[in-house]
Amino acid sequence: MKQLLTLMFAGSLLMQSCKDDCYTAPDPTVFEFVNSSGENLIQSGTLTGSKIVVQQDNGNGNFAGIEVEVRDDNRVLLKNVGIYEGTKNYNVYLTTEPVRTFNFRVSASKLTGDCDGFKIDHLNVENISSTKENGYYKISVD
Description:
There is one protein chain. Helix content is 13%, strand content 46%. It has 1 helix and 11 strands, in the order αβββββββββββ. β3 and β4 form a beta hairpin.
């Protein structure tokens, strides 16, 4: 009988941990950098991943670097954006000649339901021409 109770207890812990492992990440934050003609600047070689610097503004003069990944489609994935509850500000520096800068703001919230996770409620690009496309933001750099 003691073994049966131990087995039932272990099974209930296993069932509980499966639910705890449920996590939904926010939609990815992806930028495509183009010129006024719509030409992708990464594909043309004008811009590289090493020339794109993104920082999260933590307030009081403190910033945290955001990892940038250039994808196979020549768009840039900004990692770990939106994994919080609230609003965060970001600064983007394109270290080309001339250096260009712009900002964006992300408001995110916790998911409700059985899984933990976050969703991006709103992303607003500031100080540069941009359009929201299907799954990414097109940033016009000129």
